[in-house]
Amino acid sequence: TDSAVLAAVDLGASSGRVITGRVTAGRVDLAEIHRFANRPVRLLEGLRWDIHSLYTGVLDGLKAAGEVDSVGVDSWAVDYGLLDADGHLLSAPVHYRDTRTDDVPEQVWQTVPAEQLYARTGIQHAPFNTLYQLVAAQRTAQASIASRLLLIPDLISYWLTGEQGTEVTNASTTQLLDASTATWAEDIARPLGIGLTLFAPLRAPGDKAGTLLPDVLQQLNWQRQVPVTTVASHDTASAVAAVPVGRKDHFAYICTGTWSLVGLELSAPVLTEASRLANFTNEAGIDGTVRYLRNVMGLWLLQECMRDWGDDDVVGLLREAASVKGLRSVIDASDTAFLAPGLMPRRIAQACSATGQPEPVTRGQITRCILDSLALAHRRAIEQAQELSGRHVDVIHMVGGAARNRLLCQLTADASGLPVVAGPVEAAALGNVLVQARALGLVGDVPQIRQQVADSQPLHRYEPSGDRAAWDAAARRISG
Ligand code: LFR
User: Fold this and answer.
1) How far apart are CA 373 and CA 204, in angstroms?
2) What is the CA(259)–ligand 1 centre distance, in A?
3) Which ipTM was obtained for this model?
4) N or C: fewer beta carbons within 10 Å in the chain?
5) 90-126 pLDDT, tens per residue?
6) 390 in helix, strand or coil?
7) Residue in 198, 183, 96, 182 with CA at minimum distance from that of residue 142
8) Do residues 58 and 16 make contact, with C-beta atoms less than 8 angstroms apart?
């Protein structure tokens, strides 16, 4: 065959999607089949993902897509479901923004020093890393009966196929994988009392994950045997695989959505002490590459303000933000103080006054403060990634939802003094689809995947403009 239709299940922190991609020689065309809200639920026991509603969304989407040649699943990282010995889910997976890990990192470092953790795993310090979640849950009743842990995309694949595995790009975000060999770091897990037999065997993008179960086929009303193909199941890894660059480009990427993931693709991890202190992460990318990046809070800041205001008119807010004075006040958009949900406009205003800047008051001013701060955090991460890795960047690729946010793209170009190429918006779904296409022999290597994206998706280029000194001055206001 020289063409196929692949279904990408792409679950994000605020919505899930089922997207099909038709892949033919040199082209890929996407169709969004189904989009559904991902609304976490706050229970007595804490903040949880409504995983059953997500799975229903997945099945609804696949059913609406009709029979495809293969299915692949990606989602946000670090979170997981626990299964009992019968393979049954024990409870709703805990949300990474839950507060149960608040004091855990310091506790862990008493057993395994932070320096050693980083030298081995290369993973940033974030309170939500799976490692900290597992330690936080250690004395719970569920931990005592759990016999298997499946990361979110692997859990969905398991329900679809009955087969269990641990996909390696996502596994790196557990902070339990050796950054250089991409195998489990037994000497990190053991002293912390984490049993690695909890994890299903590792598998890599392109491996077959299984075949849709007869009962699933029946629910979908499909007749054929359809494979589920392992993709780069960490959404950011799928998105990076689809960044539309040429073989010779020196690029940085910003994968946007709830987060901005800002960094470089490297062939080996940077495990220096300077890198640890700058809190850069070395996550596993496709085909043994390293995603050397920093987590910036991203449009989460705006989403939370909008939830607080009960305002869902993004276009109106961005228009207002474009019309107010820029760089009036900025915040540190990499600060984990903004991780938890709730009262975001207030927290942002307080962060401004704490650094001696005027508090933004109107919705337009607050939105502008967020976008200026994101642009500044993007620039800082790209500058530091270059310094720490010794690599040079001459273009920034912005993929994901914010690629359609013209103001943020332009501000990012202005702040960094580099051109920004924006698009595709559905980078994660494209990476998901094209890795499946590669497994079917329809596409070659990753450079070819990227070329195919560049050739078939609309891209928009922003040239840097304005006064960079103003950005330098703003940066100084928040650099302690
Ligand atoms: C983006 C993302 C980030 C990860 C965060 C939490 O969707 O996957 O890469 O740090 O969510 O899982």
Assistant:
1) 36
2) 7
3) 0.98
4) C
5) 999 999 999 999 999 999 999 999 999 999 999 999 9
6) coil
7) 198
8) yes
